[in-house]
Structure to design on (259 residues):
C-alpha cells in the first residue's frame, strides 16, 4: 500500500511537469513556424515597397526622358516641301513695238506746226534709255526730239484728213466774231487756239483777224497774229491737198474774201 501511494505521488508530481514540458515544446514549435511565416511577410512587404519604388523611379525617368525628347521634336521644324516649279512657258517672241510714225512722215506738233520725221534714235537721258522721234520743222529751221512714249501727251499727231480740211473751209466762210473785248484778252485766246494744233480752231483765228479791202487795217499785233495763224493753216492744208505753199495761201485767202 505504502508503495502504491509513493508511486501515485511520483506520478502526480511528474505528470504536471511532463504536461508543462510538452506544452512548452508545442508552443515553441508553433512559434517557430509563425516566426518563419512572419519573415516571408516582411520580405513580401519589402519587395512590394521596392517594387513600388522602382516603377515610380522608372516612370519618373521615362517622363524626364520624354520631356527631354519633346523639345527636340518641337525644335526641329517640319521639312519644307520644295516649291513646285511653275510650268515653263514657251518663250514669247520678241516683237518690235509698232511706232505711230515712220521716217519721212509729216506730223503736226501743237506749238510748232507741221514738221517731218527724219528718223528714230535712242539716247540715254538722266539714266533712262529713250527712243525718240527726230522731227525737222523747216519753216522754223528747228529740230525737235520727242520721246516715243510721250507722243500722246505732247499732242503730236498725223496730218489731218480731207474731211477735216473741209471743216476748215467751212469755218473760213463763216462770220467773224465780234471784236468788242479788249485786244489783250483776245490775243490770249487767239494764241491758245493757234498752239492747240486744231486746224479748225486756227481757222477761227484767221477768219476773225482777216481784213478785206476797204476795212480798217490791222494793228501791228493783229497782223503778226494773223500771219502766224495763216502760216500754220496753209502748211497743213498744202500737204493735205497736195499743193505748194503759195497756191494753198492764195486758195485760202480767196475763200476768206468770199470771191
Amino acid at each position: 500500500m505504502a508503495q502504491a501511494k509513493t508511486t501515485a505521488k511520483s506520478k502526480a508530481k511528474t505528470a504536471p511537469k511532463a504536461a508543462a514540458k510538452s506544452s512548452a515544446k508545442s508552443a515553441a514549435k508553433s512559434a517557430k513556424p509563425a516566426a518563419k511565416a512572419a519573415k516571408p511577410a516582411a520580405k513580401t512587404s519589402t519587395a512590394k515597397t521596392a517594387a513600388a519604388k522602382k516603377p515610380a523611379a522608372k516612370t519618373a525617368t521615362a517622363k524626364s526622358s520624354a520631356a527631354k525628347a519633346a523639345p527636340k521634336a518641337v525644335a526641329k521644324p517640319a521639312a519644307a516641301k520644295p516649291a513646285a516649279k511653275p510650268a515653263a512657258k514657251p518663250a514669247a517672241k520678241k516683237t518690235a513695238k509698232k511706232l505711230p510714225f515712220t521716217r519721212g512722215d509729216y506730223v503736226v506738233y501743237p506749238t510748232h506746226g507741221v514738221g517731218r520725221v527724219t528718223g528714230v534714235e535712242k539716247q540715254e537721258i538722266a539714266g533712262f534709255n529713250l527712243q525718240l522721234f527726230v522731227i525737222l520743222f523747216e519753216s522754223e529751221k528747228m529740230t525737235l526730239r520727242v520721246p516715243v512714249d510721250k507722243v500722246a501727251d505732247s499732242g503730236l499727231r498725223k496730218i489731218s484728213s480731207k474731211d477735216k480740211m473741209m471743216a476748215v473751209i467751212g469755218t473760213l466762210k463763216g462770220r467773224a466774231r465780234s471784236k468788242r473785248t479788249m485786244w489783250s484778252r483776245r490775243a490770249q485766246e487767239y494764241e491758245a487756239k493757234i498752239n492747240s494744233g486744231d486746224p479748225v480752231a486756227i481757222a477761227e483765228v484767221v477768219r476773225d483777224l482777216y481784213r478785206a479791202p476797204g476795212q480798217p487795217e490791222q494793228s501791228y499785233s493783229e497782223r503778226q497774229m494773223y500771219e502766224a495763224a495763216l502760216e500754220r493753216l496753209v502748211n497743213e492744208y498744202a500737204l493735205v491737198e497736195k499743193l505748194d505753199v503759195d497756191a494753198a495761201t492764195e486758195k485760202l485767202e480767196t475763200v476768206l474774201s468770199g470771191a
